[in-house]
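Re: beginner question about structure tokens

> Can someone show what the tokenized structure looks like for a real chain? I only ever see the sequence side.

Sure, here's an example I had lying around. Input first:
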Amino acid sequence: MDNGEVIVALNEDWSFAGATLPEWMSGFITFILASELTEKVSRSMPLLMLLWLATTFLLASLRKSFPDEDRGLRNFITTLMGFPPPGLPAASKLQPVWSGSPIRGLSERKQYEVLQLDQVILDVDSPVEAPSFTPRVVRQ
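And the corresponding structure tokens:
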């Protein structure tokens, strides 16, 4: 898109509630393995179902949080270890996330904030009137 937004899961083939078949199967396998740890499956069924859904949607959200939309768990683990995932460029220091999330605020000492350029450049999407601009004199 022209404005730089990322459409999440655009190239996804099949999904149910946003999760693909391997993610649902991973959740089901987690359900089966966790049921072996309980005395009575019927008594702990609500927790097991919650574990199934949580595993499924956790894997789906990890997959969608990276641009390649394929290897979410691998990319998440390599990011935790401190280096970018293979085949993906590292996230910038200004916006250390992998998708179209909002940019975090800048430090007050940055030249961009000192010159108040955030007030000069208007946001086209917001219906706010132009702010009153009072320049500061910066002496170094």
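Each token stands for a local structural state, so reading them left to right follows the chain. The CA atoms of residues 35 and 41 lie 6 Å apart.
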